[in-house]
Amino acid sequence: MKLGFGLYKHMLNKAHFEFARQCGATHLIVHLVDYFRGGIQGAHDQPRGGLSGWGYAGDPNKLWSVDELVALKREVESHGLVLWGIESFDPAHWFDILLDGKERKEQIAKISQIIRNVGRAGIGVIGYNFSLAGVSGRGSSRNLRGNAEGVAMHGRSELTDTPLPLGMVWNMIYDQNAPAGTLQSITHEELWDRLKRFLNEVIPVAEESGVRLGLHPDDPPLETVRGQPRLVYQPSMYDRALQLVPSKSNALAMCLGTIQEMTQGSVYEACDQYTKNNNAPYIHLRNVVGKVPNYCETFIDEGDIDIMRVFRILHKNNYDGVIIPDHAPQMNSDAPWHTGMAFAMGYLKAAMTAATTSSS
């Protein structure tokens, strides 16, 4: 198994690559979508947003090119790191795939080309979240050790229950000129049908390109958010997603923090099952206290997840993917994100070392 960092678009630079190596990371999962573009939240932490979403989607006509992907990969490698994967498609490239709109066919062609480009660049994984509302409904809390700030959910609220406005999907605005009104709700089965059609069309492309598509569970894992259904809000629902189109390229971005927040199942059983079967090319690992709709992300060493137990499972299953601390509380310093992530990475590195040496 390998340890890595997830870096947002504005972090793809020398300073952050060096920081990752200094912390002991060997791999990166990168975001090429600028979640903070035009948003009200500063880019000092993970995006949260309010009723107006995170920010504006990108250019629908600008796809990630082979040249820019290769250039990024070489820059990452020049700092002693491996570019393992890319997380999230830009809503500008696939809003009508999610919405089953009139541009769906054209956008399937765009996503297919992106997958081909990623494969030609020698990058093996793309994570994605097939969701209409996206990551929405979360706030923050200072009820952490030492009054640190972390992401939290304090019950259902207007952030979870206000219908999505037209022109927004995946918690980002793709059409700034959309008319007033809200998106009509659909059923869970309609959303599952959209995912199945998507996978039927793009998994063959991913197979030919040597790319694995990793489905992230719904965060927060509620049955509905902003009037729209969710796909994977219980661990067992991952089985259905994998069975839609059985293929090595139909994989999971397994977020253990989100799975722990779910109201059913066991995070340890899910971790065991999906790593044993090689379904998860990378893992998000954070700690949390509580279940939806009331939970708080906390320090890696004091939540409801037994981190050592997770690493023992991964070691038993000879897990060969990448583990990243996807979120961490911000700590009091001149660089709150860096300090929180450094603490999380140090703990994960120690846990990995202990798990892999105790049985040898």
Total domain units: 1
**CATH superfamily grouping:** Divalent-metal-dependent TIM barrel enzymes
Mean pLDDT, rounded to whole units? 95
Low-confidence stretches: none
Report what the structure shows.
The protein has 360 residues and is of the alpha/beta class. It has one domain (2-357): TIM Barrel (Alpha-Beta Barrel), CATH 3.20.20.150. The chain is built from 11 helices and 16 strands. The strands form 4 sheets. Strands 1-2-3-4-9-12-13-16 form an 8-stranded parallel barrel, surrounded by 4 helices. Strands 5-6-15-14 form a 4-stranded antiparallel sheet. A two-stranded antiparallel ribbon has the order 7-8. The model has no long low-confidence stretch (mean pLDDT 95).
Secondary structure layout:
Blueprint: E1 2-7, H1 14-22, E2 27-30, H2 66-78, E3 82-87, H3 91-99, H4 104-120, E4 125-128, E5 139-141, E6 150-154, H5 158-161, E7 168-169, E8 172-173, H6 188-209, E9 212-215, E10 224-225, E11 228-229, H7 237-244, E12 250-255, H8 256-261, H9 267-276, E13 282-284, E14 287-291, E15 294-298, H10 307-316, E16 322-324, H11 336-357
Parallel strand pairs: 1-2, 1-16, 2-3, 3-4, 4-9, 9-12, 12-13, 13-16
Antiparallel strand pairs: 5-6, 6-15, 7-8, 10-11, 14-15
